[in-house]
TrEMBL record:
Residues 32-57 are annotated as: Disordered. This is Alpha N-terminal protein methyltransferase 1. One of its GO terms (biological process) is methylation. Keywords: Methyltransferase, S-adenosyl-L-methionine, Transferase. GO terms for cellular component: cytoplasm. CDD domains: AdoMet_MTases (cd02440). It comes from Rhodamnia argentea. Residues 41-57 have a biased composition (Polar residues).
């Protein structure tokens, strides 16, 4: 049982609340942050006073956020300036990424390791992802993609949990990208085809690089899957990654981003150097990337104490205009009897 420690977190200018958080902090990646079990982001007692309309209307750079020590930032810009410095401060930015990867280098290459002690959410996570992926394949590719040479990229793949349990069953080829070499080695071993296996699909490439330094081959992928790792990227690297990666999609291809969602603003984890963003924050970034939401879905069935998790299917294609009004007008026109 983790020890409980009392910390004071200022949630509103006029209210100082004493909140319990777990300490010492079991270290997690993105899915598992019991650290925030009692955080203002989950506690209904400490809901922000702004209405949902006000929260959506607030430009993201103006939304306030917290770090894992309870410190409040007045907006994301203030937080990023502190964490990665102003433009040109190469050293600070390098340090941010070094510490992020450094954190994961100290984690064991197991499902429990990459899920921060929450290996038991694996089944619910994979089921939710599978339902979402099936829907996308049916809607996006003729015949649900059957008979096509489908190729996926698993970004921040860790030990290849998503590739092994999901992607390899649907894609002829899966490439994995992961900056932590002992994770990638574990992935390589677990994805070696079993002799006699009916599945002919294969893991093809294993890239040991971080997302901010990766450029995919042009037109290689039907789906680029990014799960529980994008929080490690600063906003500008987030945008440049997606801008470069768009060229890696085949025509009609999609990004799937599956991530923890903060209730509002953001939450900075000081230990693993990651940021959990709100839905509004993500939408602002998608806009900057020139990406459109083709479909999105909430992940269900995860433990109450964790952040909400959302799946976004993103496309660089401009959505087709739905001529709803005209269709409606025609529908309401009296029929003509011929
Ligand atoms: C919570 S684990 C998730 C692993 C995997 N996506 C899964 O769902 O099982 C976070 C992963 O992000 C990786 N990561 C950290 N910094 C990264 C970066 N800059 N680019 C890509 N991946 C990164 C970590 O090494 C780790 O494998």
């Amino acid at each position: 049982m983790p020890m409980e420690a009392q910390v004071s977190i200022r949630v509103q200018p006029s209210c100082t609340c004493s909140l319990a958080i777990s300490s010492p902090q079991p270290r997690f990646g993105l899915p598992a942050k019991p650290l925030f079990r009692h955080s203002p982001l989950r506690s209904t007692a400490n809901k922000p006073t702004a209405s949902p309309e006000q929260l959506t209307a607030t430009p993201i750079m103006e939304a306030s956020g917290f770090d894992s020590k309870g410190r409040e930032f007045k907006n994301a810009e203030e937080m990023w300036t502190e964490e990665i410095g102003k433009d040109g401060d190469v050293h600070k930015r390098k340090e941010w990424y070094r510490q992020g990867v450094g954190y994961w280098e100290g984690v064991e290459a197991t499902t429990d390791g990459v899920l921060g002690g929450y290996a038991h959410v694996n089944d619910a996570d994979i089921k939710g992802s599978e339902a979402f992926l099936r829907l996308l394949l049916v809607e996006r590719f003729p015949g649900g993609g059957r008979g096509r040479n489908l190729v996926a990229l698993d970004c921040g793949s860790g030990i290849g949990r998503v590739s092994k349990n999901l992607l390899i069953r649907f894609f002829t080829e899966v490439d994995l990208l992961e900056p932590v070499s002992h994770f990638l080695e574990a992935a390589r071993e677990s994805l070696v085809p079993e002799s006699g296996s009916a599945i002919e699909n294969k893991a093809t490439n294993f890239f040991c690089v971080p997302l901010q330094e990766f450029t995919p081959d042009v037109g290689r992928y039907d789906v680029i899957w990014i799960q529980w790792c994008i929080g490690h990227l600063a906003d500008d690297d987030f945008v440049s990654f997606f801008m470069r990666a768009k060229a890696g999609l085949k025509p009609g291809g999609l990004f799937v981003l599956k991530e923890n969602i903060a209730r509002s603003g953001f939450v900075l984890d000081k230990e693993d150097r990651s940021v959990t963003r709100s839905d509004t924050y993500f939408k602002e970034l998608f806009h900057r990337c020139g990406l459109h939401i083709f479909k999105s879905k909430d992940q269900r069935g995860l433990p109450e104490e964790l952040f909400a998790v959302k799946m976004y299917a993103l496309t660089p294609d401009t959505p087709k205009r739905v001529h709803g009004t005209r269709a409606k007008a025609q529908h309401n026109r009296p029929s003509i009897i011929k």
